[in-house]
Amino acid sequence: MKKITIPILFGAGIILIGMWAFLKFQDGSESAASLLNEAEGKSIVDLKGDDQTGHPVKTFDITASEKQWQINQDKSVQAWTYNQSVPGQEIRVQEGDYVKVHLKNDLDVPVTIHWHGVVLPNKMDGVPGITQDAVLPGEEFTYEFLADNPGTYWYHSHQHSSKQVDKGLYGAFIVEEDQTNYSQDHTFILDEWAINSEKQSITNMGSMMTGGMSGDGEADTKAMYDTLTINGKNGSSLSPIDIKEGESARLRFVNAGYQTHVVQFTDQMRVIAVDGEDVTSNEQQSKLEIAPGERIDVEWKNEGGSISLLSQSEGTNDVTIPLSDEGSQMTGEQEESSGGLASGTSYESKELLFDKTPENPDVTYEMNLNMGMNMGEGMVFQINEDTFPDTPPIQVEEGDLVKVELKNTGMLNHPMHLHGHRFQVVSKNGKKLNNPIVKDLINVKPGETYEVYFKANNKGEWLFHCHDNNHADRGMVTIVDYKSVYSPFEIGRGTKNAP
């Protein structure tokens, strides 16, 4: 079963944070967290929410609770679930629906729901200590917002994410378009687990780091996890999908894990959307690389082949998606399709935020991503040589054009996710992209630099963090701070909030 990494807000780390905060106050600088509680401007809870007038209302009840979850006939984990399953209930609505989700907490720990990739009012973002107080055991909270951007999204707890998402608190959130070209539409949530509880530990990860790196940016997850799942299952326990031979389908892939995953198609596929945005692509590919937190939709025609989640390390088996029409499923060794590898940055978005690379940004922020060692905490993951809540925030005014340069000078992958906005990726390693793409998450691999732009058009306090939540838990988080608003919520200081 997956084990928690100790949050940087507690233990010996709290002493370090206090010392850093004191020193920063002395020299006049401000941390991300301190800016949230300045009593000037408007509280984020007083910002206008979405208007449900004239929209169909879809209501869902979600209960967080514990369950012994059977991954296959031989392996089980003590999971934390939404509605007693891993993944939780798929929430599927139509474009233009007004969504109400009533969360009840039957766990003995606080939880929330964050709507990953959904652009919504700040107070509905589900980040404890930033946009709400965590929902305590026995308590309830209702999220409501307008689903006006069709695409593939997902929901997960943002309370102690490194543990709670790892233990199964996630599910798919699908906003269907008014019209669809596919009679078949299936969602697959990819994840990795540590069945051997001794395998997943921060101590093991630290010894692996000092002992040497694999060089591919995935050394930590390869050392920590030993079992792959699709929709919470693997092997013969995975439910088959009913796609007849010759039939085409829309397949939605969500990476809920902390490892970059590769999906192999023996029949070729075509990428049609990334992070909820349609892309322009006529290429047929045979492999799909999906970063943690990323969503990629493909068009796939069943021509007698198969789809498999590939192992990235020794001791971990591939997971193949079974088809209910067994006569169409090839058996034995299958020839790999001749197509190449597609990723989340392979194709241009059909609708861009900016027609050309913007000039003269109002705010420029250089985000250096690295890791280090801190006394009492061991390994930490840093933004500009600081760990949250002392990371420098991205301070903006409403309407600002914001440029962020993300540079990975460390040895591990960092899938960086921005809440409440979408950004346009315009360059990689200093070279302008021929195919700019609109996303909410970009996987920055070791040695890579990306330049992204976004418009500060959704007032609030928003996280920008690594979606390998083990990295976020140990510091790789900052905040997009709108100067005209503040958060009335707090992290630590006797609260149960631990984002």
Protein described:
The chain crosses the membrane at residues 6-23. This is Multicopper oxidase. By secondary structure, this protein is mainly β. It has three domains: 12-47 and 352-486, Immunoglobulin-like (Sandwich); 57-151 and 164-175, Cupredoxins -  blue copper proteins (Immunoglobulin-like, Sandwich), CATH 2.60.40; 191-349, Sandwich (Immunoglobulin-like). It is 9% helix and 39% strand. The protein has six helices and 32 strands. It has helices spanning 12-26, 32-36, 161-164, 202-211, 219-224, 469-473, and strands spanning 42-43, 57-70, 76-82, 91-94, 97-105, 114-116, 140-147, 151-156, 170-176, 185-193, 227-230, 248-255, 261-274, 277-280, 285-290, 295-301, 307-309, 319-321, 341-342, 348-349, 363-374, 378-383, 394-396, 401-408, 414-418, 423-428, 431-439, 441-444, 449-455, 461-466, 477-482, 485-486. The longest helix has 15 residues, at 12-26. It starts with 11 loop residues before the first helix and ends in a 13-residue tail after the last strand. The model is unreliable at 1-29, 206-212 and 327-335 (pLDDT under 50).
